[in-house]
Amino acid sequence: MLRNALILLVVLALLAWPSPAMAANAKLAHIIVTNTRDDLLVYLTIEGAFQEKLKDAILSGVPTTFTFFLTLHRSRGLWFSKEIMDISVTHTVKYDNLKKEFSVSRSYAGNEPVVTPSFDEAKKLMSEIDGLKIVPLNQLEKGKKYQIRAKAQMEKLTLPLYLHYVLFFVSLWDFETDWYTVDFVY
Asked: What does the pLDDT average to over 167-177?
């Protein structure tokens, strides 16, 4: 009897274990490096991050945070690259079930919440970085090679009162993209 229960628990744990295919669904896309008169800017989008279980978690009021990591390096041929900038920005969505509205805060936009009743609009705000200032152009040398690397991940959900021990399947909502690289000459 005890052995059968143990086997059942092991099988359930294996079925609930996140597979690499789940993490492979989320990826960065449409990465654009451009500049204004004064600054180097980056635009990018996460695709495939909003699986049905994540949507259900958000709609049930669980705050969700995406973190974007970006680095800027100057390529120096045979020498090691020189890191110029290392940035991380966060996007957090919270759903207010009473008001039926989403509040999205983005750290690079001063954490001023954008409130919307539309899940699609909240998803768009969470998934995109629009014109993130990476570095002032006066810190770059003309004619030199540079590289921007970008990655995104969803913060692990922290549940109150030891619920993470009971709800071990919460890890199914976690994702982390691969590093994506854009090479350019300034």
From this structure: 58
